[in-house]
């Protein structure tokens, strides 16, 4: 069922989609973490 | 143009356009990929034409991102402007991801067509791997040096990017200059593809209606142009949207560093004043 041809086709599409999902989740996570850190620090300085 | 040189103004504009880019990118990339899976088999490559629709956008983007980072680094070095430096920091992880996709999809395609996943004698493959190492070197270099002096780290990173742009130029032309396993350029730059798609749309078809689609020496067959163009556009827009998020992240990190420095200075002043 999984010969080199189907691995090449589905593997390529899978890799490209997975990379997009990882990039999306990763970037979103980094940004929210940095925003949270900034809000905490500004809160501390406000006190 | 100059109004975008202000980081705050640029980010306000970029953040406003980011959701549009993201949605358009996802929709176009998904549509292009589905279309790419449904194209008729090629005369020579048969079903193996299909990985081309994800390999070409990522391989092209890996070169475009590094080239644009090198240009931005040059601008940052000459004009000492922070925005191009922030762009480089944000674009590097995106570039590394698309380079990994290009390497992986290329290797998967290579097995059934060239009978090998990898060949160290092929300069195009080796240069793409070198490009990945350059992305990783830049990320590590700047992160490590930033712990001592962030401004110096960004400057050293810029020098590295300008000096190493030769890999991009070699990658672009190596298939024309040398006999390599990797096939010649698919002629797949956005401008050429758009012109060809428009020509096909206007009925100036390059081949007769009965001709089997075939990837020729000059580029790719007309029937493959629209899905490739749409996937490329979608992929570019999607990663542009991710890049804007990462630029925002880098700007917040800069702000955090500056606030922490002020906090430490305030603590030191209080300790000195109270004698504790």
Topology:
The complex is a heterodimer of chains A (47) and B (276).
Chain A: H1 4-46
Chain B: H1 7-37, H2 52-79, H3 82-114, H4 123-146, H5 150-163, H6 166-177, H7 190-201, H8 225-274
Helix pairs in contact in B: 1-8, 2-3, 2-5, 2-6, 2-8, 3-4, 3-8, 4-5, 4-6, 7-8
Walk me through this protein's architecture:
- The complex is a heterodimer of chains A (about 45) and B (about 280).
- Chain A is mainly alpha-helical and about 45 residues long.
- Chain A has one helix and no strands.
- Chain A has one helix at about 5-45.
- With about 280 residues, chain B is mainly α.
- Helix content of chain B is about 75%, strand content about 0%.
- Chain B has helices at about 5-35, 50-80, 80-115, 125-145, 150-165, 165-175, 190-200, 225-275.
- In chain B, helix 3 packs antiparallel against helix 4 (about 125-145).
- The longest helix of chain B is centred in the last third of the chain and has 50 residues, at about 225-275.
- The model of chain B has no long low-confidence stretch (mean pLDDT about 85).
- Chains A and B meet through helix 1 of A and helix 1, helix 2, helix 3 and helix 8 of B.
């Amino acid at each position: 069922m999984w010969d080199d041809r189907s691995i090449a086709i589905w593997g390529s599409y899978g890799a490209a989609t997975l990379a997009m999902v990882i990039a999306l989740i990763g970037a979103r996570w980094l940004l929210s973490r940095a925003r949270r850190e900034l809000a905490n620090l500004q809160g501390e300085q406000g006190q | 143009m100059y109004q975008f040189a202000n980081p705050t103004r640029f980010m306000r504009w970029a953040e406003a356009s980011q959701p549009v880019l993201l949605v358009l990118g996802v929709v176009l990339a998904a549509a292009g990929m589905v279309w790419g899976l449904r194209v008729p088999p090629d005369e020579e490559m048969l079903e193996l034409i299909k990985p081309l629709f994800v390999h070409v956008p990522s391989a092209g983007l890996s070169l475009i991102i590094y080239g644009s980072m090198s240009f931005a680094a040059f601008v940052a070095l000459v004009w000492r402007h922070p925005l191009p430096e922030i762009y480089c920091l944000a674009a590097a992880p995106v570039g590394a991801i698309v380079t990994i996709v290009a390497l992986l999809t290329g290797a998967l395609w290579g097995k059934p067509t060239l009978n090998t996943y990898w060949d160290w004698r092929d300069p195009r493959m080796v240069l793409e791997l070198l490009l990945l190492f350059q992305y990783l070197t830049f990320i590590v270099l700047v992160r490590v040096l930033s712990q001592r002096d962030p401004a110096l780290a960004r400057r050293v990173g810029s020098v590295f990017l300008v000096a190493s742009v030769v890999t991009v130029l070699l990658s672009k032309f190596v298939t024309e200059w040398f006999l390599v396993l990797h096939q010649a350029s698919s002629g797949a730059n956005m401008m050429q593809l758009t012109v060809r798609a428009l020509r096909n749309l206007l009925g100036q078809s390059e081949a007769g209606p009965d001709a089997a689609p075939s990837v020729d020496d000059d580029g790719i067959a007309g029937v493959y142009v629209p899905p490739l163009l749409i996937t490329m556009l979608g992929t570019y827009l999607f990663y542009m949207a991710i890049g804007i998020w990462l630029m925002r992240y880098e700007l917040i990190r800069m702000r955090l560093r500056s606030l922490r420095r002020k906090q430490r200075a305030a603590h030191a002043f209080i300790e000195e004043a109270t004698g504790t």
